Backbone:
C-alpha cells in the first residue's frame, strides 16, 4: 500500500519540482528578470575553448580574442589600417649600416684608402651640394653620423652537422676583420649601398671576399665556406632600428607600471627555445633589444625586414611575474624542477595579467572566460563592466542562445544572412575576411606540373555559382595571394572565366583527349586523381562535391576524401602525399609571403606544400620583404600577383564575407565635455570592423531613438 | 467361436492424446497473429528491405533513374513536392517524374534519391556489423561453452606470447630482427620439448611441471577477454577508431561489429552450458562425431534463439550508432548518402529547411522501431517463461 | 565468501592491467600525432614539433612511454597536453559537472520506470500495457540528437528561454532561490533526454521480471488465499522481482564516467563525455588513457559490487 503510494507520488513530485523551475527563467524580452546586472555584461560565444592565455604562446583564434582584450601591444592598426600607438606613444624608424673597408679595391681617383680617409671622403661628399646623381645625394643626406670601427681580430664558434642526422660539431673561426665604417641614417634606405657604389666604385662591395679574412680549425666544403663567409664577414650590412617611446602612466592589472624592461622581456620570452613560441619566426631577424630608459626601447634588426613594425602589436608580458626569479619561485611552490619549468607550465597562462582594457577574472574550462573592466586603463575604462566569453561548440545552439537572449552577438552562417538581416530585433554588420579558400595542386605529380592543366582545371569550375549558391552571395572572387582590402592586391587582374570548352581546348593542347567512355586520357592513361579536404567545414565539403561534379563534366574522374584534421595535416599535407587539396589561408595584412610561396619552403613540414618554384617569384618575395617604401612595395606585389595568377599553382576560389548580428539595444555611448550623454548607432569601419569602438559600447533596456547625426 | 485370431497391429491401439505438433513456421505465424506490434515490425522490416533493394537498383550505375549525387546549385533547399525550375537546369539534371518528391538539400541533390541510396547503405551497415558481431560471438561463445573445462598449458601461453612478440617486433622494426628470430626459435624449441614429454607427472622436474601445468581454463580466458572488451565504453572505442582511421563505410561496419560481440558470446555460452549436458550431445559423442561438428551442426541450432533476438536489436543499434557517428562528423564520406548523413547535414538548416531533418529522422525512427518490435516479439515467443497459460 | 572476494579482486586486477596495455596500444598505434601548435598559422616550424616530442617522451620506445605514463598517473602528476593542467584535476572537475546530470537522470529513470513497469505487468495485455510498450519502443528508437533538437527548438521558439549550458549567464548576481531554480531548469532537458532510453529499457525489464514472478505458483497461492491485490503485487511479487535490480545498482557505477558525447555537445554541458571526445580529436594521450583507466576501474568495481550484492541478497546462491 505505502509502496504503491510511494510509486505514485515520487515521480509526480519529481516532475513538478523540475517543471516549476521554468517560471524563474529570464526570457529574451525580459533579460533582466531577477538580474539587473545583465545590462552591464557583454556575452559572446565561440565554438572552441582558448588554450593558453598568453600572447607569446597561443596559436588558436579563441586564445587570440581573449589575449586581444587582456593584453596590449606597443602598436596596433587604426580604422584605416594605419599604425597607431597604444602602449607606445610614438616611434622612429631609422637604421645603421655597416660596410668593411676593402683593402684590395681601388676607389676611382683615390686608389686604395684606409678607413679614416674613407670616412672623410663620405663626409666631404655629403657637404658638396652638387653631385651628378640625385639618388646618391638623397642617400647621403640621410646619413647623420659616420664612424670608423678599427680593425680587430676575434674568434667565433659555430656548430655544424657533419652529415644529415649526425651530431653537431663545434668549429672555431678566427676572424681578422679590417676596419669597418658605421653609418647611422635617419631613415631606412635599402638602396644605400647601390648608391654608394657611385662614390666608391662599382666593384667596391662586390669584390670584397669575406673568406680572405677567415680561418677555420676544421675542413669545410666550398658551399659551407660560402655560407659562413656571408654570415661572418658580409661586405655590407643593414641594421634597421625601431625606437619606441612608451606612454607614461600605463599600468598592468596588478598596479605595476609598464616599462621598456617588459618589452625586452617579452622579446626574450618569445626567443627562448624552451617556450616553444609559435611566433618565433617573426622575431628571428631581431639582433638586440636595448632598454635606453624606462620609457624608451631600441630594437635593432639584423637585416632589412619591412614587416618589423607590425610584429610589435603582440601583447606585452609583465616581467615581474614571469622572469626567471618568479618562475623559480613558482616551480618551488609546486614542487617541480626549476630547470625545466618554463613559461608554458606557469599558472600565468590560466590567469593572465596584462595591460589591456579588460582584466582577467575567471576561466572555467570549456564553459566560459570572464573578464572585468580595468578601471586604470590609460584610455579610460570601457563602458561594459564585464566581458563574458562562452564556449558553445554547436553553431545551432549558439543561435538558440542568441534568440533566448543569453548571447549578445552571433556570427551568422551564409544561408541565414537573409533571414536575420530582416529580423527587427537585431542589427547586422558584414565585412570581408582576411584570407581566402583555394584548391592547391601538388606540382610534383603529373599532370599538375603543367600550368595549362592547372589553368584548365580552374576554368572548369564555375566559382561564381559557388559564391552565389553555397555562400549565398556572402563572398567575393579572389585572384591572388594578397588580402583583398589592401592595395597590395591588384584589382586589375581578372579572375579565371568559367569556360569548360576553353578548358577542354587547353587540355587538348597538353595532350589530353576524350576516349570512348567520355573520360580524358593521354598516352593510354586516364586523367584521374583524388581531391581531399578536412572534416568539420561544411563549405569545403560543398566545394569538394561541386569540384568533383564540374570535373566529371569535362571527363576527369575525381575521387574525394574527407580526413580528420590532424591526420589530414600530418599524414597528407606535411608528408606531401596528396594530389589536390581544398584548403584556406587566414592572413595578416603584411605582404610577406615567404613561407607560403618561396621555393626554399617546399620540403616536408613546410608551408609551400604545393611545390611552387619560380625564380622570378622568389626574387620578388625577397625584395618585398626588404622594401620599405610603400609604393614600391605595392608595385612589387602587383608583379608577384601577376606571376602567380598566370601560373595558377592554386585555383583561387573566393574570400568569404562574415556577418555578425547584435542585439539592437547595444549602442555606442559617448559623454561629451559638458557631461551630456549621447547614444550613437554602431557603424563599422572601412574594413568592416564593427568592434573598433568596443570600449564605448553599452546595452540599454530598450532600443533608443537616435539623433539625426549618429 | 472365433476360429482365427486377428493380428494385433498398431492401429488397434487407441492412441493417447498427444499435444498438437507445431512447426517453427507455424509458431512464428501464431506469434505474429497474437502480437500485433511484432507483426507490424516484421511487415515494416520487409518493406524496408524491399525499399533498400529497389533503391540500390534505382540509384546505382552511371545513369541511374534517381540520381543521388547530382549537384544542382540553383535548386538548393526546395521544399518537398516542388517543381523544378526547368529554365535553369540542363536536361539531364531534371529529376524523373518532374517533381522533387522530398525536396532538395543544400547542394540541390534530390533527397528522395538520397534516401533510397541511404536505405541500402544503412541496411548494409546494420547487417554486416551485426553479422560480424554474431559470427565472432557464436564462435567465442561456442568454444567457451563447449570446451570450457579444458585447460591451456603455460607452455602454450609462452609460445603464443613469443610468437606475437616476435611478429610485433618485426612489424614495428623496433628491435633488430635477430632478437625477434631468437624469440621465435626459443618458443619453438620450448614447444617441441613439451610435445615430447612422456614422463608421468610425479617424475617430472619442478620447472617442467610448472611449464606444462595447467594455467587457465578456456572458459576463464574467453570470459576475461570479454570482460576486457566490456571495460571500454563502446561508443568511445568506436569513436576513437573511426576518428583515427580514414573514413570509409567498411571501417565503420567492421568497427561496430568488433565492439558488440560480447553480449552474444555471453548468451551463447549460457545456452551451451545447459545444452552440453543434454542427451543428444552424449549420443553424438558416442557416435564418434568430431567436436566441431557437434558444436556447429547439433548444439548451435538450438542455442540460436537469444542470438536472433539480440541480432535484430543489434541491427537497430548499429543503424543508430551510424547516425550518431555521422552527427559527430565521422560517418560515411560523401558523396555516399546514409540516413545519418542526410540528418546531420540538414541540422544546420533546421529553420530554413526542416524537411531535411524530419524526413530522415522519422525514417530512422520507423525502421529502428520496427526492428525493435520484431526483436521483442521474437524474444516473447522464444522465452517459454513468458508464454501465456491456458 | 572471503575466498570469493579474494579471487575476484585478483582476477579483476589482472584484467585492469591488460586493459591498460590494450588501451595504450590502441592509442599509440593510431595514425596522426598530437597537434598542439596551430598549423594554419603560416609561421609554424617543424623544430617546435621536435622539441615538443622530446618533452613528452614521444621519441622513446613504447614500453618506456608506458612506464612513464603509469608512473605519472599513480603519483598524480599526469598533465594534459592541450592545456597543461593536471589530468586528475580536470577529470574531477568534469566529474562534478556530470554528477548532477547523472543523479537527476538516474532518479527520473528509476522513479518512472518502476511504476510504469509494474502497472504494465499487472494489467498485461490491456490498453495501458500496450501504450506503454509502444511508447517505450518509440523512445528507444528515436535518434538521440534528433529528439534533442526537436525539444530544444520547441522550447526556445515558444518560450524564449535559454536551455544550453549548466546555468544561465549572469545569474550569479541574482538571489539564491533564482540560482537554484535556474540550475534545476538547465538540468531538466539534458537529463530527460538521457533518461528516455533508460526508462524505456528499464520499464520493459521491470515488466518482464514482474511477469516472470507473477507466473509462479506462490503468487497463485497468495491470490487464492484471499489477499488484496495490493498485498499480492507489492508485498510478495515485487519483493522477489526486485532481486536483479539490486545487483544493477552496482552496474550504475560505470555510468558516472561515461557521459553521452552527443547530448553534452548539443547542450554544451562541460562533462566527461565531451572532454574525452575532444581529447581523442586532439590526441591528448594522457587524458584519453586516464579516462579509459578510470572507467575500466569503475566497470570492474561495479561488476564486483553487483556480484557481491547478488551473493548477499539471493539466499539461493552460496559460493
Residues:
Amino acid at each position: 500500500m505505502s509502496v504503491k503510494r510511494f510509486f505514485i507520488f515520487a515521480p509526480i513530485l519529481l516532475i513538478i519540482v523540475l517543471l516549476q523551475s521554468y517560471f524563474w527563467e529570464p526570457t529574451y524580452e525580459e533579460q533582466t528578470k531577477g538580474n539587473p546586472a545583465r545590462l552591464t555584461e557583454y556575452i559572446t560565444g565561440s565554438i572552441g575553448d582558448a588554450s593558453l592565455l598568453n600572447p607569446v604562446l597561443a596559436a588558436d583564434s579563441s586564445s587570440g580574442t581573449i589575449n586581444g582584450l587582456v593584453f596590449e601591444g606597443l602598436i596596433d592598426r587604426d580604422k584605416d589600417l594605419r599604425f597607431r600607438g597604444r602602449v607606445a606613444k610614438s616611434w622612429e624608424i631609422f637604421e645603421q649600416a655597416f660596410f668593411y673597408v676593402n683593402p684590395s679595391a681601388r676607389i676611382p681617383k683615390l686608389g686604395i684608402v684606409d678607413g679614416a680617409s674613407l670616412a672623410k671622403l663620405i663626409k666631404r661628399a655629403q657637404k658638396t651640394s652638387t653631385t651628378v646623381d640625385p639618388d646618391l645625394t638623397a642617400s647621403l643626406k640621410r646619413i647623420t653620423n659616420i664612424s670608423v670601427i678599427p680593425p680587430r681580430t676575434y674568434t667565433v664558434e659555430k656548430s655544424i652537422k657533419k652529415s644529415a642526422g649526425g651530431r653537431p660539431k663545434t668549429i672555431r673561426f678566427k676572424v681578422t676583420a679590417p676596419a669597418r665604417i658605421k653609418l647611422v641614417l635617419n631613415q631606412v634606405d635599402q638602396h644605400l649601398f647601390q648608391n654608394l657604389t657611385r662614390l666608391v666604385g662599382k666593384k667596391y662591395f662586390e669584390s670584397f671576399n669575406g673568406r680572405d679574412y677567415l680561418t677555420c680549425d676544421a675542413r669545410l666544403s666550398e658551399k659551407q665556406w660560402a655560407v659562413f663567409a656571408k654570415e661572418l664577414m658580409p661586405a655590407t650590412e643593414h641594421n634597421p632600428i625601431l625606437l619606441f617611446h612608451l606612454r607614461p602612466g600605463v599600468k598592468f592589472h596588478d598596479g605595476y607600471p609598464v616599462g621598456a624592461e617588459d618589452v625586452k622581456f617579452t622579446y626574450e620570452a618569445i626567443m627562448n627555445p624552451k617556450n616553444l613560441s609559435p611566433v618565433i619566426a617573426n622575431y628571428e631577424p631581431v639582433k638586440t633589444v636595448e632598454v635606453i630608459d624606462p620609457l624608451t626601447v631600441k630594437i635593432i634588426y639584423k637585416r632589412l625586414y619591412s614587416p618589423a613594425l607590425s610584429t610589435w602589436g603582440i601583447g606585452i608580458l609583465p616581467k615581474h611575474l614571469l622572469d626567471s626569479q618568479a618562475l623559480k619561485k613558482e616551480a618551488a611552490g609546486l614542487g617541480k624542477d626549476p630547470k625545466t619549468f618554463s613559461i608554458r607550465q606557469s599558472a600565468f597562462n590560466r590567469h593572465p595579467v596584462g595591460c589591456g582594457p579588460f582584466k582577467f577574472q575567471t576561466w572555467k574550462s570549456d564553459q566560459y572566460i570572464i573578464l572585468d573592466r580595468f578601471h586604470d586603463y590609460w584610455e579610460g575604462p570601457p563602458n561594459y563592466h564585464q566581458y563574458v566569453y562562452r564556449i558553445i561548440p554547436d553553431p545551432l545552439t549558439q543561435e538558440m542562445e542568441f534568440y533566448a537572449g543569453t548571447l549578445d552577438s552571433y556570427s551568422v552562417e551564409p544561408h541565414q544572412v537573409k533571414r536575420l538581416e530582416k529580423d527587427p530585433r537585431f542589427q547586422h554588420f558584414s565585412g570581408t575576411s582576411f584570407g581566402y579558400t583555394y584548391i592547391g595542386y601538388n606540382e610534383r605529380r603529373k599532370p599538375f606540373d603543367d600550368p595549362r592543366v592547372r589553368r584548365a582545371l580552374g576554368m572548369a569550375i564555375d566559382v561564381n555559382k559557388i559564391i552565389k549558391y553555397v555562400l549565398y552571395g556572402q563572398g567575393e572572387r579572389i585572384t591572388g595571394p594578397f588580402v583583398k582590402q589592401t592595395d597590395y592586391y591588384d584589382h586589375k587582374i581578372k579572375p579565371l572565366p568559367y569556360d569548360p570548352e576553353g578548358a577542354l581546348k587547353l587540355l587538348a593542347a597538353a595532350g589530353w583527349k576524350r576516349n570512348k567512355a567520355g573520360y580524358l586520357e593521354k598516352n593510354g592513361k586516364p586523367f584521374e586523381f583524388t581531391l581531399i579536404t578536412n572534416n568539420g567545414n561544411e563549405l569545403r565539403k560543398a566545394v569538394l562535391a561541386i569540384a568533383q561534379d564540374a570535373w566529371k563534366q569535362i571527363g576527369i574522374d575525381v575521387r574525394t576524401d574527407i580526413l580528420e584534421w590532424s591526420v589530414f595535416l600530418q599524414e597528407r599535407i606535411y608528408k606531401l602525399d596528396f594530389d589536390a587539396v581544398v584548403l584556406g589561408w587566414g592572413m595578416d595584412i603584411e605582404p610577406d609571403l615567404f613561407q607560403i610561396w618561396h621555393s626554399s619552403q617546399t620540403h616536408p613540414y613546410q608551408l609551400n606544400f604545393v611545390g611552387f618554384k619560380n625564380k622570378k617569384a622568389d626574387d620578388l618575395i625577397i625584395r618585398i620583404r626588404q622594401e620599405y617604401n610603400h609604393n614600391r612595395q605595392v608595385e612589387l606585389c602587383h608583379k608577384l600577383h601577376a606571376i602567380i595568377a598566370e601560373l595558377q599553382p592554386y585555383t583561387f576560389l573566393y574570400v568569404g564575407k562574415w556577418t555578425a548580428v547584435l542585439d539592437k539595444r547595444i549602442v555606442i555611448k559617448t559623454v561629451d565635455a559638458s557631461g551630456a550623454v549621447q547614444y550613437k548607432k554602431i557603424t563599422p569601419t572601412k574594413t568592416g570592423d564593427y568592434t573598433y569602438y568596443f570600449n564605448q559600447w553599452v546595452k540599454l533596456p530598450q532600443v533608443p531613438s537616435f539623433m539625426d547625426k549618429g | 467361436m472365433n476360429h482365427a485370431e486377428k493380428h494385433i497391429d498398431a492401429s488397434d491401439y487407441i492412441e493417447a492424446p498427444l499435444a498438437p505438433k507445431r512447426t517453427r513456421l507455424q509458431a512464428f505465424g501464431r506469434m505474429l497473429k497474437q502480437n500485433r506490434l511484432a507483426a507490424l515490425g516484421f511487415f515494416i522490416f520487409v518493406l524496408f528491405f524491399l525499399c533498400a533493394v529497389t533503391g540500390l537498383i534505382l540509384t546505382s550505375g552511371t545513369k541511374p533513374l534517381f540520381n543521388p549525387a547530382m549537384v544542382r546549385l540553383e535548386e538548393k533547399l526546395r521544399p518537398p513536392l516542388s517543381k523544378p525550375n526547368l529554365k535553369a537546369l540542363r536536361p539531364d539534371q531534371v529529376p524523373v517524374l518532374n517533381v522533387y518528391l522530398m525536396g532538395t538539400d543544400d547542394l540541390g541533390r534530390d533527397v528522395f534519391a538520397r534516401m533510397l541510396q541511404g536505405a541500402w547503405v544503412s541496411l548494409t551497415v546494420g547487417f554486416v556489423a551485426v553479422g560480424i558481431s554474431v559470427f565472432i560471438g557464436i564462435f567465442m561463445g561456442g568454444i567457451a561453452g563447449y570446451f570450457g573445462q579444458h585447460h591451456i598449458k603455460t607452455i602454450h601461453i609462452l609460445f603464443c606470447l613469443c610468437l606475437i612478440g616476435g611478429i610485433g617486433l618485426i612489424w614495428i622494426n623496433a628491435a633488430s630482427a635477430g632478437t625477434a628470430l631468437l624469440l621465435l626459435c626459443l618458443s619453438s624449441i620450448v614447444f617441441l620439448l613439451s610435445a615430447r614429454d612422456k614422463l608421468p607427472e610425479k617424475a617430472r622436474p619442478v620447472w617442467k611441471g610448472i611449464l606444462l601445468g595447467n594455467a587457465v581454463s578456456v572458459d576463464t580466458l574467453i570470459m576475461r577477454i570479454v570482460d576486457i572488451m566490456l571495460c571500454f565504453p563502446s561508443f568511445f572505442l568506436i569513436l576513437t577508431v573511426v576518428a583515427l582511421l580514414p573514413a570509409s563505410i567498411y571501417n565503420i561496419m567492421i568497427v561496430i561489429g568488433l565492439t558488440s560481440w560480447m553480449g552474444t558470446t555471453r548468451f551463447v555460452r549460457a545456452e551451451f552450458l545447459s545444452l552440453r549436458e543434454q542427451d543428444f550431445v552424449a549420443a553424438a559423442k558416442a557416435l564418434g562425431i568430431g567436436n566441431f561438428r557437434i558444436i556447429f551442426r547439433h548444439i548451435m541450432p538450438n542455442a540460436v534463439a537469444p542470438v536472433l533476438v539480440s541480432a535484430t536489436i543489434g541491427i537497430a543499434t548499429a543503424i543508430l550508432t551510424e547516425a550518431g557517428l555521422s552527427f559527430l562528423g565521422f560517418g560515411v564520406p560523401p558523396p555516399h548518402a546514409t540516413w545519418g548523413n542526410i540528418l546531420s547535414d540538414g541540422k544546420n538548416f533546421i529553420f530554413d529547411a526542416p524537411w531535411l531533418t524530419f524526413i530522415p529522422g522519422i525514417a530512422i525512427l520507423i525502421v529502428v522501431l520496427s526492428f525493435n518490435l520484431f526483436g521483442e516479439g521474437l524474444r516473447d515467443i522464444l522465452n517459454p517463461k513468458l508464454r501465456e497459460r491456458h | 565468501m572471503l575466498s570469493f572476494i579474494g579471487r575476484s579482486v585478483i582476477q579483476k586486477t589482472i584484467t585492469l592491467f591488460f586493459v591498460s596495455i590494450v588501451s595504450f596500444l590502441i592509442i599509440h598505434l593510431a595514425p596522426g600525432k598530437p597537434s598542439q601548435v596551430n598549423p594554419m598559422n603560416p609561421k609554424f616550424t617543424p623544430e617546435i614539433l621536435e622539441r615538443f616530442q622530446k618533452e613528452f617522451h614521444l621519441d622513446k620506445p613504447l614500453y618506456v612511454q608506458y612506464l612513464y605514463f603509469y608512473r605519472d598517473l599513480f603519483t598524480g602528476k599526469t598533465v594534459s597536453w592541450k592545456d597543461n593542467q593536471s589530468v586528475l584535476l580536470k577529470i574531477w572537475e568534469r566529474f562534478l559537472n556530470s554528477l548532477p546530470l547523472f543523479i537527476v537522470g538516474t532518479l527520473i529513470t528509476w522513479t518512472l520506470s518502476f511504476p510504469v513497469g509494474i502497472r504494465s505487468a499487472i494489467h498485461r495485455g490491456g490498453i495501458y500495457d500496450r501504450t506503454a510498450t509502444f511508447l517505450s519502443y518509440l523512445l528507444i528508437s528515436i535518434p538521440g540528437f534528433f529528439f534533442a533538437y526537436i525539444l530544444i527548438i520547441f522550447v526556445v521558439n515558444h518560450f524564449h528561454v535559454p536551455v544550453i549550458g549548466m546555468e544561465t549567464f549572469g545569474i550569479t548576481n541574482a538571489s539564491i532561490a533564482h540560482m537554484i531554480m535556474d540550475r534545476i531548469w538547465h538540468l531538466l532537458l539534458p537529463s530527460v533526454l538521457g533518461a528516455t532510453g533508460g526508462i524505456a529499457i528499464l520499464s520493459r525489464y521491470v515488466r518482464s521480471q514482474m511477469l516472470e514472478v507473477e507466473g509462479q505458483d506462490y503468487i497463485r497461492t497468495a491470490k487464492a488465499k484471499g489477499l488484496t491485490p495490493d498485498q499480492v503485487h507489492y508485498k510478495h511479487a515485487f519483493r522477489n522481482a526486485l532481486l536483479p535490480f539490486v545487483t544493477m545498482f552496482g552496474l550504475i557505477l560505470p555510468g558516472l564516467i561515461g557521459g553521452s558525447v552527443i547530448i553534452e555537445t548539443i547542450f554544451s554541458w562541460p562533462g566527461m563525455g565531451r572532454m574525452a571526445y575532444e581529447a581523442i580529436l586532439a590526441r591528448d594521450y594522457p587524458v584519453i588513457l586516464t579516462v579509459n583507466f578510470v572507467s575500466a576501474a569503475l566497470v570492474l568495481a561495479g561488476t564486483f559490487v553487483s556480484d557481491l550484492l547478488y551473493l548477499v541478497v539471493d539466499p539461493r546462491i552460496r559460493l
User: Anything to note?
Assistant: The longest helix of chain B spans residues 291-328.
